[in-house]
Fold:
Amino acid sequence: MLAKVHSFGISGLEAYPITIEVDVANGLPSMTIVGLPDNAVKESRERVRSALKNSGFKFPPQRITVNLSPADIKKEGPAFDLAIALGILAASEQISPSLLREYLFLGELSLDGRIQSITGSLCITTSIKKDSFKGLLLPSKNAKEASLCGRLPIFPVETLKEVLYFLENPQSIPPFVLDKTLLLQKDHFDGDFADVKGQIYVKRGLEVAAAGGHNLLMIGPPGSGKTMLAQRIISILPDMTFEESLETTKIHSVLGFVRSHIGIIQNRPFRSPHHTASDVALVGGGPIPKPGEVTLSHNGVLFLDEIPEFRRNVLEALRQPLEENYVTVARASKTLRFPAKFMLIASMNPCPCGWYMDPQKGCNCNSYQIQKYLSKISGPLLDRIDIHLEVPALRSTELLTTTLQETSAQIKKRTTRSRDIQIKRFVNTPISANAHMNHKQIRQYCPLSNECKALLKKAIEELKLSARAHDRILKVSRTISDLAGSDNILPEHLAEAIQYRSLDRNWWG
Ligand SMILES: Nc1ncnc2c1ncn2[C@@H]1O[C@H](COP(=O)(O)OP(=O)(O)OP(=O)(O)O)[C@@H](O)[C@H]1O
Ligand SMILES: [Mg+2]
Structure:
C-alpha cells in the first residue's frame, strides 16, 4: 500500500515543502530511501526501525520504498524520521492514512521512540504559506523558536506514541502559545567598558562605529588592549529590533545554534573566528551550501583578531559581503544568497615584533619585514574599513589610575539615541544604520556646506583618498553629527571623520 506524509526541507536559509511517499510491497525485507538523501537521511532507516519496534509497533518485514519528493533537491539531516515512520505505519495499515493528511511532521527519532530537536524550525514556519494544513507537529524543544512567526498552529510532541495518540484524539495537545515575556529576556555581558582604563580616543572611535554600524580597524603594540576593547563592543551596540532578532534567529536556527529554552536570539551576535579559518568557513558554501561566519554575524559583529594572520584569499573573500551586505554562493545546481550585514572589527600589530612607531620601546624589524607584514592587508580591504584607530600602549600612570571609567550602559544610551535618529531617517528602506547608505542616500542625507566641501577637498588631495573613502568619510560624519544631535554635518564632525582615515597613510603610505 502507498502512503503520503507532508514535511519541509531546508535549502540554504529557505524551506520548501516535501512529500514523503512510502510504499510497502511484498518481496524480500528491505528499505530503500530515494530522492537525493544524504547520509543522515539514509541512516533514518535504522532509527525508524528501532523507534517503531520500541514504541510497540511492527516494522513490516517487506520491501519498503521511501521517496522524498521533489527528487531533484538534495535532502539532508534527520528531520524526516518522524514523517518516514508515520508513512511506514500507514503503508503497512497499522494506522489509517487519512490521519496524516492534514498535518505537517518534523522530528528526528531516537531509538526508543523519543522525538529529538531539529534545526531550522523558524525558517520552516516562516516559509509555510498554505493554509491547507491544520497544524505542524514538531519536537517540543523547537516549539518556542517555531512559534515566533507563521500562522500555522504548532503542536509540540515528545514521543512517537504521543503523536499517534494526538492524531486519533486531536484535543490531547493544545496548540502552543508563546510566552511573550521571553522576548524581554536579554543575556548579561561579563565585560564592560568601565574595565578599560584610559584609551579615551579609542573608546570614542568605538562609540562612533557602534552608533552607525561602521567597520573598524585597531592597530597597536602587544598588550595595548585591542582584543579587550573589541570584546566589549556588543555591550555598547543598540539593541536589535524584533525584525533583526527574527532574521538573526533564523540564520542561527539553520545551524542549530538557538537555545531551546529561549527560542529567540536577542543579543547581537559576536563572532570571532580563529585565523586558521577557511574561506568557506568565513563566507559560507560547501557541497550543500551553509552560511559562514559573515552570515552568522548578520546584525552583529565579525571580529578578526590578528587580521594579518588570516590567509590572503580568506580576507579577499570578505570584499563582496563588506560592499554588498550579502554573499552569493554559486554551485553547479543552484545559486544561493545569504545576508551578511555585519560590522567588521579587526585588530593587528603594526609589525612582526609589534613595536613599530612606539615612542617607548624600539622596534627590531627592518623596513622590508614591516612592509611585508602590512601588505597582508590589501588596499581594497583597507578601503572598505571606515574607521582606523591607533591603540597606543598604556602609560603606567593611566594603568594605575583609580578614576572611575564610563560604563557601557552610559555609552549605549548615546549610541541608541543616535541609532534611533537613523532608524527614523531610513524608515521604509531596508537599512537602519548610516554605514549601509548607498550612493544616492549619501547624496540625500549628507549635504555639505561650502566650508566642509573645502575641508574634504583638501583631505582628499593630501591623503590621496579614493572615491570609496570619500563616501565612507561622509557616512562616518553623518554618524558623528547624529551622536551630537545635529541635523547638519558641521566642519568639526567632518574633521573627526577624516582623522579616522588618516592612519592608512601613516602606516601603509
Ligand atoms: N586600557 C586597559 N585597561 C585595563 N587593562 C588593560 C588595558 N589594556 C590592556 N589591559 C590588560 O592587558 C591585557 C591584554 O590586553 P589585550 O589582550 O586586549 O591586548 P592586545 O592589544 O590584544 O594585545 P596583542 O596585540 O598581543 O593581541 C588585558 O587582558 C588586560 O588585562
Ligand atoms: Mg589581541
